[in-house]
Amino acid sequence: MTATGGPARPAARVAGAVKVHGSGDTAVHALDGVDAAFPAGRFTAIMGPSGSGKSTLMHCAAGLDTLTSGSAWIGGTELGALDDRRLTVLRRERVGFVFQAFNLVPTLTVAENITLPLDLAGATGDRDWIDAVIEVVHPRDRLHHRPAELSGGQQQRVAVARALAARPEVVFADEPTGNLDSRSGDQVLGLLAHAVRELGRTVVMVTHDPVAAAHADEVVFLADGRLAGRMRQPTADRVLDRMKGFDPHTPTEVPS
Fold it and tell me: Which pTM value belongs to this model?
């Protein structure tokens, strides 16, 4: 809900999303007519069994992959209407990404990695905003270190700072805690939640971990490439129970 009590507008959404790999008898429907909206200023987790299409949904919603049919939107912009150059600019200016593998540039310092998307765009960014992000992520005493000198948790916090540096409308995170121990993972999830609740960003996260999903405001479930329910105010136990009892052939709305 927004501050005025109305429904939050989607920061990202897909409509009738279909993604097919291959053709003919070997065709695989990674997404099969998915309608999903991710409200602005909220933290949404995407979950489902292996092969359910959750990463494909995130990649298509973020403009990292294209749909076979249907549409994907960032705010009021339809991604399918953009040429490659305009899509690149949109991803650089309006979208942030956090991946399981950190994807930091090993030859750059922490400070240089954080501002890399802005530097590539020839932009200076909002210095006050960048400083605020650095304060939240706490890498200030290591700004001149290189990634190899950091722990995995520290590297992922830098990756979160990089994703936030350009003040994106929405941050997409693909298994951001998959390479971390539980303590480091909890710190990264706390940062993503802070980005939503204190910095006003939108986060969409793919995860297989019910504990990670419990940090979100809502969980979207997929099965066999189709929407299989939503859960508001998730807890780890409720999410785990839902995953244990998953029936991909009878999608149902999960009670709030």
Answer: 0.88
